[in-house]
Amino acid sequence: MSQNNGTGGKCPVMHGSSTSASQNNTSWWPEALNLDILHQHDLKANPMGEDFDYREEVKKLDYDALKKDLNALMTDSQEWWPADWGHYGGLMIRMAWHSAGTYRLADGRGGGGTGNQRFAPLGSWPDNVNLDKARRLLWPIKKKYGNKLSWADLMILAGNIAYESMGLKTFGFSFGREDIWHPEKDIYWGAEKEWLAPSDTRYEDVEKPETMENPLAAVQMGLIYVNPEGVNGKPDPLKTAEQVRETFARMAMDDEETAALTAGGHTVGKTHGNGDAETLGSEPEGADVHEQGLGWFNANLKGKAANAISSGLEGAWTANPTKFDMGYFDMLFGHEWEQKKSPAGANQWEPIDIKEEHKPVDPTDPSIRHNPMMTDADMAMKMDPKYRAICERFMADPEYFRDCFARAWFKLTHRDMGPKARYIGPEVPAEDLIWQDPVPQGETNYIEEVVKEKIAEAGLSINELVCTAWDSARTFRGSDMRGGANGARIRLAPQKGWEGNEPERLARVLKVYEKISAETGASIADVIVLGGNLGVEKAASAAGHDVHVPFLKGRGDATDEQTDAESFEPLEPLADGFRNWQKKEYVVKPEEMLLDRAQLLGLTAPEMTVLLGGMRVLGTNHGGTADGVFTDRVGQLTNDFFVNLTDMANRWEPKGKNSYDIVDRKSGNTRFTATRVDLVFGSNSILRAYAELYAQDDNQEKFVKDFVAAWTKVMNADRFDVK
Predict the structure, then answer these.
(1) Cα dist from 187 to 103, 190, 209, 600, whole Å
(2) Which of 243, 285, 378, 393 could be a cystine partner for 124, CB 3.0 to 4.6 Å?
(3) How far is the C-alpha of 630 from the C-alpha of 508, rounded, in Å?
(4) How many secondary structure helices (H) and strands (E) does the chain include?
(5) Neighbours of 107 (CB within 10 A)
(6) Number of Cβ atoms within 10 Å of the Cβ of 579
């Protein structure tokens, strides 16, 4: 075959792994709306197929055998990655912690619920150095239990078993986390272009931790929480305390939970920095093929646990690093501390005066003892007045500390799983916890049609019916399974006062619904959804389509006592493209905020398209604005939005920053007005393809059918009790 092909000796085939980034559409057109986040977990990437149901498969698991195997693994040290003191507990706890610890309250993303630590970028984060070894140690167990055990469940369970093997009575455990099969692209980890860039880049003022960019929680790119050496690597425990307080609050933890997690997490295990970190090889994502997915190759390990390097800090926190006890407090508060450098050059704290017998032994050679160490965050527990008071309370009551830590650990590792209805397994705690957003079981012994008749007789408009149901359901976040219509929390603080919920209209409708609920026995939550369904059915009927919107009974009504109002604040919509509203102008474009909302609701691009088009013609815009209402038949479920959007008899003229006129080309008269969220369905090539589909003369019935299906999906997104 001739090599004279004009390619300069390069392979003429444009392999995906070797082509430049400029051949990516978003590189050519960086301002274009990228819809990938709506389809990132497409079934084409899932090797299990549509029929596989992990939540049913895991119920077949032999839990006792699995726990026995995990307990045996903890002390089965391997030559290729030797265990500290012959116990892998510290490593497994760190893996579980860092898997769960990426969760943030602002958007519910991150956390250990998907096993995403197996993929980039998390698998190669600087803060996750050598956790690839923990997962590889677990591989024989994953291989043995196969499809009955997800990586996501296994990684968290390994941390639980590690604690139990070292003497802690854990609070409980739930299975049910389903694995993803490729990286999550929808999670914004920060704008930095380098690992561990100075934290100033994500703060308006690094001296004021509350100014950290939302929805971020970690202080630097590539860290889980805070820099263990201090703010930007400069030791100052009081400044670090404020960063710890803010970052843990953004992960849904209060001061007591934060102090308990810090103390309990550092009661066992050690940090690793016994050598030059510059000698380590590339992270897993950058390592050569012969490394087989492992990274950070340590040529100086030589089969000795004592030679490991990860964070760069070096040493154990306690004298008994494989035992869960009160040793952390004894060490921290029993000595004075001074700043030192680890062998790897990291800033750490070591005791000024400590007896030899109180030092932890070498992780490889028990005849050698080393100084313990503390991070800047540990010193914050001693020097910050609020954290110190909590630690003193723990020291006075060890059992209280154990209970607080066990509960905080359970919350850390289960916060992103959602309501208790999603929990599976023999160790699910009986106690209902407020952060699980408990909802009582609703009544099902009522007649659906009677409720709908009473709603119809109440004389509410289609706008009132549909908007109230939508506003109740749209709070759902598939990221952490919170929100949704179940519980009817739209009638409680803080939701009843949210601007996006139009409080006056909401109060008026809820007064009607409360009366109907009392008369029929249906929960207010069910009445809200039935009202929305009725509104859709009436609108479809007015357009000549006889449809029945599917409905599931049994939603309950949560109480104020069952609602952690403060934790619901981040669920407040700042924009809702489906109702053509945003609270104020943002740097982020309105259409990008629409995508974010659609992704959290679990919608595909076609579902997002048909829902928005239908909502427009129903006249459900916030405040009754006319933007995007491309129809003369408001209140009828027609495909007019798409017909008029794609009609070339019109032209589109900018009127303001987010305002456009739809002008008739012949007369010059303005027919409609629009926002960017409306016009993106005609400008974006992918969304236009969907818009044209629904604008076709032969697809009016399909439009109605697809709208009803997407609407029902949103209304039932949080019905884990029937899934």
Answers:
(1) 11, 9, 21, 11
(2) 285
(3) 28
(4) 23, 9
(5) 20
(6) 25
Q: Where are the alpha helices (DSSP H) in 434-556?
A: 448-457, 462-473, 503-520, 524-542
Pinpoint the alpha helices (H) of 588-672: 590-600, 605-618, 640-645
Per-residue pLDDT at 486: 98
Residues belonging to the chain: 723
The answer to whether 358 is a known catalytic residue is no
- How far apart, in whole angstroms, are the C-alpha atoms of residue 530 and residue 237? 55
The catalytically annotated residue of 98, 335, 414, 622 is: 98
Q: How far apart, in whole angstroms, are the C-alpha atoms of residue 624 and residue 628?
A: 11
User: How does DSSP classify residue 40?
Assistant: T
Give dist(CA 11, CA 600) in Å, integer.
Answer: 42
Residues 6+ apart with CB under 8 A from 222: 125, 126, 127, 195, 196
CA distance 377 to 312: 15
Place of tokens 């990684």: 155
Q: Is the dihedral of CA 587, 590, 593, 595 positive or negative?
A: negative
Distance in angstroms (rounded) separating the CA atoms of residues 160 and 429: 14
Answer for the pair 679, 688: CB distance below 8 angstroms, yes or no: no
Nearest to 176 by CA among 377, 380, 428, 395: 428
Name the residue type at position 626: A
Residue 270, judged by CB atoms within 10 A of its CB (0-12, 13-18, 19+), counts as buried
* Residues 371 and 313 sit within 8 Å (Cβ to Cβ): no
Task: For residue 569, give the nearest of 440, 508, 482 by alpha carbon.
Answer: 482
Yes or no: say if 338 and 349 are a contact pair by the CB < 8 Å rule. yes
Residue 222 and residue 233: Cα distance in Å, rounded? 14
Of 83, 128, 74, nearest in space to 304 by CA = 83
CA dist., res. 706 & res. 636, Å (int): 15
**For the chain, first and last CA: distance in Å?**
59
Task: Tell me the two tokens of residue 153.
Answer: 């469940």
Q: Which amino acid is at 110?
A: G
Which of the residues in the chain have pLDDT under 70?
1-23, 723
Structure tokens at 76: 């089965």
Distance CA 161, CA 167 (A): 10
Distance CA 132, CA 130 (A): 5
Residue 374 DSSP code: B
Tokens of 587: 């740097």
Q: What is the pLDDT of residue 23?
A: 63
Element (H, E) at 650: strand 650-656
- pLDDT at residue 20 in the model: 43
Distance (Å, whole) CA 245 – CA 238:
11
What is the Cα–Cα distance from 457 to 461, expressed in whole angstroms?
Answer: 11
